[in-house]
Amino acid sequence: MFPIIQTLKKYLSKLIPARFNKSVSIIPVVRLKGVISTSGSPLNPGLSLAGVAELLEKAFSDKRAPAVAIAVNSPGGSAVQSRLISKRIRDLAEENKKQVFVFTEDAAASGGYMIAVAGDEIIADPSSIVGSIGVISAGFGFVEAIKKIGVERRVYTAGSNKSTLDPFKPAKKVDIDRIKELQLEIHQVFIDLVKERRGDKLADNPDLFTGQFWAGAQAKELGLVDHIGDMRSFLRERFGEKTQLRLISPQRNLFGRRQLTGVDTLLGKADVSALSSQLVDGTISAIDERALWNRLGL
Question: Phi and psi at residue 290, in whole multiples of 5°?
Fold first, then answer.
């Protein structure tokens, strides 16, 4: 009878949902992908705190989960949104007493790495691009272009610094110096956060905070990440072979359908002019995003 009982128990255990099976560890997974920005469009939304706050809350609210896994795949973007997302992850981890494991994909660079340091441990793919601890500002100058087409630029301001770095005027040294001063302040915030989170793990390397970036294995040698591996294998090794990953998805409506996006709404109303505007914004955002990925050779 004993073998029959064992077989029956094994069969019945397969019918029990994992969330009710105490021998199975379920790890919520949040994916953070794309350029970090609040200026995206419905066609190309940016990664921001407002956009991910609900997903993070949902992941950390699972009382049975021993940890939360976060997949980061970002070339960077807004320093403010990067720090806010990173801080929210740490706040939720401390409030809910959960470990945080961050897994880097194609890239966790610049603002993407600022988010990654919220993890108690960072696990990188061997080919992940990691680092780029620096600050960058970029733009275009059209001074000669408007001369050629005969356009006269007229700007009226109240305040001598209101037209700083106007792309239609020659760059002034005082404006450039001011921007560089701001960059240094923001860069120091980034450096302090990395040192606070990574502490003695960091190697004594002069290039660490220069904006340089590295592949996964070298990033590990520099102390920027803790392990080389992938999410499924790492978590099963840490929590057992029965460990299951549960992807946290955006909220669905009462009928089980995903919430409508801005594009869905525009298409539904057949608002051609509004849709055209969104297409233009989306195209510009896509170009900006492509430039950030290209900077990393991706």
Answer: -60, -35
Q: Which of 132-146, 202-216, 260-274 has the highest mean pLDDT?
A: 202-216
* Stated length of the chain: 298
Contact 257, 249 (CB under 8 A): no
Q: Residues of 250-275 as b/e, b for ≥16 C-beta within 10 angstroms?
A: eeeeeeeeeeeeebeebeeeeeeeeb
Residues 77-100 as b/e (b if ≥16 CB within 10 A, e otherwise) read bbbebbbbbbebbbebbeeeebbb
State the catalytic residue, choosing from 41, 110, 128, 132: 110
Residues 6+ apart with CB under 8 A from 245: 26, 27, 29, 69, 231, 232, 235
156-165 per-residue burial string, b: 16 or more CB within 10 A, e: under 16? eeeeeeeebe
Rounded to 10 deg, the angle between the 79-96 and 173-198 helix axes is: 20
pTM of the model: 0.76
DSSP 119: S
Look up 98 and say whether it is catalytic.
no
Pairing mode of beta strands 129-131, 213-215: antiparallel
Catalytic residue among 33, 162, 172, 269: 162
pLDDT tens for each residue of 261-272: 443 444 454 455
Class of domain 15-134+187-295: alpha beta
H/E stretch holding 244: strand 244-247
d(CA 166, CA 146): 13
The yes-or-no answer on residue 110 being catalytic is yes
The torsion angle over the Cα atoms of residues 81, 292, 259 and 247, rounded to 10 degrees, is: -80
Helix, strand, coil distribution of the chain in percent, nearest 5:
45, 15, 40
